[in-house]
Amino acid sequence: MSDQAGRTEQPRQLPLVFDPPKGRGKPPRHLADLTLAERQELAAEHGLPAFRAKQLSTHYFGRLVDDPAEMTDLPAGQREELVSAFLPDLMTPLRTLEADKGTTRKTLWKLFDGSLVESVLMRYPDRATVCVSSQAGCGMACPFCATGQGGLQRNMSTAEIVEQVLAGARAMQRGEVPGGPGRVSNVVFMGMGEPLANYKAVIGAVRRLTDPAPEGLGMSARGVTVSTVGLVPRIRQLTEEGIPVTLALSLHAPDDELRNELVPINTRFSVVETVEAAWQYAARTKRRVSIEYAMMRGINDQAWRADLLADVLQVHGDWGWVHVNLIPLNPTPGSKWTASDPADEREFVRRLEARGIPTTVRDTRGREIDGACGQLAASE
């Protein structure tokens, strides 16, 4: 890419380790940060029997209770101490916006240190999905992303990630979302932040969500999707975890020249290397990888790039290891990045399907409520 003077602009080199800024305190320790054994140890530290940890776990994960007054099996004299020790407040809702007749709910949260993050609850006829943030801000610097332009404030804790899901689960259980009481069936790590740059907390959250109740929420790992822009060493690490979540690779371009501009981490890990790591994940887990591709007018939506994308993906054969998910770009105000023309989008789909690659166009929800991650926080 070149500037107006004709000089070649070098892609920004990003470090392999993405440490958040120093000087921020840690979020309060919460039951969801801990395994059941660790919760029992915490109970012992407070001079309490181990079964109190299981009772609190049942309230939090099993019954979705957040009001201490409803925890009537806890001694009245110790209830406040127990709740304070195990279930401290982690985040405060600042704004909740609704769209799609109330079935899409976006919440802006303030964390203990003033950081702002977003989560979205989306109810469909056959499922309910919570899209969660894993970092306050993001260090990946993708130029078309509202979060990426704000930079990274800090990593979120395991419990802060989990609490976004539990908030959605409570809303569903209490019938606050049109359609009557229900359950959260899916979680996608596609909100603010790069999940694999906060690897330990994200894996902790995945385990809390998929551990059987009362240790966790008891979700199926197949209902959890972890997105990444392509941190290859972390994809390889995830491959070894033995948790069959769906991996979503935010590719956005099939060639290094363009992807270096759209996804700066590509200057460290090329398209070929990134796709290879994703293929290895699919081969090990037998879980189909989702290739996320934000369609941008005149940037990455040319028909020849669809052909090139098919070439890149089919290097590893056509045994159905991959699915392409095209995303109509939700542009940020004043951005040069805009959504593709529908005709170009259709041709892109046609080219991929002609090569035998399953392709869908993502259902766009929440445009009228700043649906793209980071837009609501940026407006604050």
Automatic annotation (TrEMBL):
* Cofactors required: [4Fe-4S] cluster
Q: Name one GO cellular component term.
A: cytoplasm
Q: Which organism is it from?
A: Nocardioides flavescens
Keyword set, alphabetical order: 4Fe-4S, Cytoplasm, Disulfide bond, Iron, Iron-sulfur, Metal-binding, Methyltransferase, rRNA processing, S-adenosyl-L-methionine, Transferase, tRNA processing
Family membership noted in the UniProt record: Belongs to the radical SAM superfamily. RlmN family.
Every copy of the Radical SAM core domain together lies at 124-367
What name goes with this protein? Answer: Probable dual-specificity RNA methyltransferase RlmN
Function text: Specifically methylates position 2 of adenine 2503 in 23S rRNA and position 2 of adenine 37 in tRNAs.
Q: Which gene encodes it?
A: rlmN
